[in-house]
Specification:
Structural class: mainly beta
Strand content: 25-35%
Protein name: GH16 domain-containing protein
Low-confidence stretches: 4-57, 91-100, 203-223, 367-371, 379-390, 395-417, 432-445
GO cellular component, one term: plasma membrane
Subcellular location: Cell membrane
Organism: Aspergillus transmontanensis
Number of helices: 2
Number of strands: 24
Main location: membrane
Helix content: under 10%
Length: 445
Amino acid sequence: MRCSPNNQYYYTLHQTLVSVIIPSPTMKFNNITLLPSLSSIPTITPSPTPIPPPKNNTLCDCYIISGPDPGYFTNYHFWDFRNIPLPNATQQLAPDPLALDTTLLLSNTPFINDWLPQTWTKTGTTELLPITNAETNVFIAPNPDPKSHVSPNPTYLLLQTTRHADHVSTAEIEFLRWNILHCSLRVSMRLMSNETALGPRIISPSPRKPEDKHWGKGRRRKLRHNIVPKGACVGLFTYHSKTCESDIEILTSDPPNVIHYSNQPDYDPVSDTAIPGAGSMVNLSVPWTAWSTHRLDWFPDMSRWYAGEALQAVKAYGVPQEPSTLVLNLWSDGGNWTGNLRTGESVFLGVEWIEMAFNVSSVAGGSVGPGEGQTRLRGRAVRRADLGPVDGDVSRARSKTLDSEIPKQENIGKGDGVGCRKACYICNRHLYNGDTVPLQVFTLV
């Protein structure tokens, strides 16, 4: 079954505005209201002073996802970074937006109520460089190629890491709740070079027909090559402790199709070897230099990882059992795991949106104090290990698309003892239409 408005065999389509920020050209950040979750479904009319939307608790009792386990999650968030008002927005058509003050720190937006840029540091050793997390490395920026998608995306979130002579400046954001207990986490992201992330804006004629081979008369489109420097690591993961976490990791020293999935611990420092069954290195069909949705499903007895619309890995070993938070970071320390950036080099992680359906525990998992965050970084001596073949059940599922596994109506409400009478299915497609951010969810009838 495809995720389509035309398919209503089990589902009735509801178009729901669910962005944490639903901006209009006249909105100012000090007036934007954050939505705590999708237990209430908001509607909003763009105006200079947004009014908190009325609550509607009748649409969804729970949220379900594609895959072998529908999830039955009771909370939902969607953070959209694709159309955020920026300083000097009226001048954004200038050839070089960097000549203007057109970026906006994440810490100066309402997103700060959910995602906190980290500022902790880690001292160096004889083998590792010191690292310093800076809130200035996490910011909203204009998209240099806003028409590269099917629909326009004027802005995105950027995380930046830069190698200096005596340290590495890094970026990390942490979800402010520490009581997440199982979730389906999805992020639309790509890795970029400095030229790609912050290069001069690409201005194309509009409209342009698909058969056009030139832009204007006698001028071919100039493609921007996205050659990402080697030596940085992206981490997207749940975190309770260094032995209780579930990871998606990308190393820019790897080929651009290789990604790492694991439950911690995945490494035995005594034997200096990888723990069997803890992790997998997977070759993706879409490189991490291109936009793709990366997904982690954390269930009580299983972790599943997806990229695009394909299941990539399944692990029963080391599944986290404690309330956790969520972390997204971009870093390097010059060690064997990340590799070494050259002095002056920068790597950027672009993020279009973050989406999460989740359950919570009544017991919080704790919080990280100053300096404690450094335990999240890899310390092992081996940068790459043979983590074995692709999981057998993953190979069998590779030919399936996510939407072919939408749960049937008669199966809803039978999982985890949850009496879910109105289940909203989370669609996998988030297209920005220039005015609002619609998320399609299907409500069982």
